[in-house]
Amino acid sequence: MTKIAPTVPLTTEQAGLVQKILDFTSAHLNETKPAVFTVFGDAGTGKSVILSHLFDRLQTASRTEPDSVFAHTENYFLVNHPEILKVYRQIAGDRPHLFKKDFQRPTSLINQAEQGKVHPDVLIIDEAHLLLSQADHYNNFYGHNHLKSLLAYAKVIILVFDETQVLRFKSYWTEKRLQHLLVPFTHDNYRLTHQFRMQASDELVQWINDFTHAQVRPLPTTAGDHYDLRVFDDAEDMRQAIVQKNQAVGLSRIVATSGYPSTLDGGKHYITEGRFHLPWDQYNYTSTPWAELPETIDEVGSIYTCQGFDLNYVGLIIGPTLSLDTDNRLIVNLDRNTDVETFKHRDDLTDPQEVLAAKRQLILNTVNVLMKRGVKGLYLFAHDQRLRSFLKQSLNN
After folding, report:
1. How far apart are the C-alpha atoms of 378 and 231, rounded to whole Å?
2. pLDDT in tens, 120-158
3. Residues 224, 77 share a domain
4. Which residues on neighbouring strands pair with residue 330, listed in sequence order?
């Protein structure tokens, strides 16, 4: 994850975008209403490294440049994902003008702002598609929408957003919903399209994007000269291949979609597929991200530990939530979903057809997120035999 540190060189496009956002921020810093800049882009398009550079420059100016428009501004970097937050706080330890306290969860900052303990000028939000869009009393958020609450305190907000990484109803967003919320405010945006994470062919990335929208077609004829794409008949064979890659290059893990026993009760719950038998990821109480802990090679990662992370090789178990019918059309089996957080009720979703479509898309988004974790390779195993056979046959052909 050092790939998102401010020391990573930027492309000409990325450096230009950082400057564009800084210019936007300085132009709107002292206006009566907040302004918002949105960076759109799929998983792996370099959104986080842009924010990392941006925040480093902002905080350097705030703390060392008395003649800058940003001098003495109070700025925070927010991400609603505990594992990604650990990475940013690690990076802060290596940068002279970034402090670990600069990096916060949104709820924590909102609660501090309500108590008058912080007075934010500029907020940078990574993975803004994870912001809560309804109250979550379990996690001490009593407002109605993270972004709305943050707009009440900040002068400028910069966020990155990808609607195909929305995974739960309590953080249910679409680009349309986001743009509707931003109508009253000055706002600008930029869309990133180049894939940086995966060393895969454009054809394979497009295949994953199509799969995310339930369009199933044969795998592309080339995954890329430097990308390893495999389909396995046996999940245990896939695990052993991932273990070998982990021993050779590190940061290689098995991950899975929903559809297997899973309860947040502190106990171990196992995924079993024939000879394959491993527990789900355990809650990570350490300051080290889950994927960097050596012992997690013997666990199965989920969206809760892997979203936003680079792995070298990822072995994905596509669980019982997805299957193929006899006409090779993708079926989303909502009744096989086992993640109780996914479909928690929302009062503002009342149209049954909209709810059904949203549920289907959340399941597909999970696959999209997990398929795009691997820098060097993607290994696949599908619980559904018809889907597994289709993928293997199309790859062999």
Report:
1. 9
2. 999 999 999 999 999 998 888 999 999 999 999 999 999
3. no
4. 324
Verify that 317 and 221 share a domain, yes or no: yes
Mean pLDDT, all residues of the chain: 94
* Predicted pLDDT of residue 1: 46
| pTM attached to this predicted model | 0.92
Say whether both 101 and 246 belong to one domain: no
Q: Which residue has the tokens 């491993």?
A: 278
pLDDT digits (tens, 9 = 90+) for 14-35: 999 999 999 999 999 999 999 9
Domain that holds residue 212: 202-396
User: How many angstroms separate the CA atoms of 104 and 124, rounded?
Assistant: 10
